[in-house]
Amino acid sequence: MRVFTTVKDLGNLDAALKEAFEVKKNRFAYKALGENKTLLAVFFNSSLRTRLSTQKAAMNLGMNVIVLDVNQGAWRLETERGVVMDGDKSEHILEAIPVMASYCDIIGVRSFAQFENKQEDYSEKILNQFIRYAGRPVFSMEGATTHPLQAFADLITIAEFKTKERPKVVLTWAPHPRALPQAVPNSFADFMNEANVDFVISHPEGYELDPKFVRGAKIEYDQKKAFIAADFIYAKNWSVFEDADYGQIISKDRSWTVDSAKMALTNDAFFMHCLPVRRNMIVTDDVIESPKSIVIQEAANREISCQVVLKRMLENL
Ligand code: AN0
Ligand code: CP
């Protein structure tokens, strides 16, 4: 594997899941694979889970790890070609990328949507420059439009907890005070559409996601209807995708908060969220603290999803 940004990069999903469970059973079995190999994890944005799980996965494989927080201590980077650099940016990304690449074997990049220009966000401007100019395998640690390590961990978690062959999985929008990217729901939809699940997306009108990720998924604007007979509830906020209001918040309607009354409509569903989560905006305390909440197990599987990706990249170096 040379690039990991979407579900397609994993190839056969059943094989990927099987590999994930093998890794989980013995996470140190491939410790020799990463010997004297270095991972560089580059963060343009904050992170708790991705930062820690990526380092842990690399260490399980015997790798050395360097973490760079671009906004803390590195030079501010210009990303546009042709700019007269007489402002506050000291270095161009076109030098920075090959320099970073010269110190490592594999690169992970976190670079969120900036909501200034939809076309730039949806062309994955930063991530694609790494893919193009690093000359190293590159994986997304959440780009502008996808978060595949999260969605792969979500798939692993659903496979672990499901009690029927084809569970009903509901992705529901929930309110949030700040504008958030569409990357998590995009990737979740991307993966669920390839998995053996009955997949439904519920959100207020105006919050339609990119059809490229939604594909044939069912859309249900009535959240309570969507919850009926669900086996998994996956909550997430996102901002508007549609051109006119791209990156905006058009609703903070707390009637969309996931609470125990709504969970009672489900088939005793598990509750999932990628975290970080704002309690009593996205989900009530009692639901996230209930025995059916698997948010911690889901976060723990981030180590596993990342280890499968790193293992495949190391095997292909
Ligand atoms: C980010 C998002 O919604 O994409 C990261 C989630 C993994 N969330 C926040 O910025 C709060
Ligand atoms: N879920 C997730 O990616 O969390 P972080 O933003 O803390 O890495």
How would you portray this structure in words?
This protein is an alpha/beta fold and 317 residues long. The chain folds into 2 domains: 3-146 and 300-315, Aspartate/ornithine carbamoyltransferase (Rossmann fold), CATH 3.40.50.1370; 150-299, 3-Layer(aba) Sandwich (Rossmann fold), CATH 3.40.50. It has helices spanning 13-25, 49-60, 93-101, 118-122, 125-133, 148-161, 183-192, 211-214, 223-227, 260-263, 285-289, 295-315; strands at residues 3-4, 38-43, 64-69, 77-78, 91-92, 106-110, 138-140, 168-173, 198-202, 218-219, 232-236, 270-272. The mean pLDDT is 98. The site of N-acetyl-L-norvaline (AN0) has 7 residues, from helix 7.
Short synopsis of the structure:
The protein is α/β, with parallel strands linked by helices.
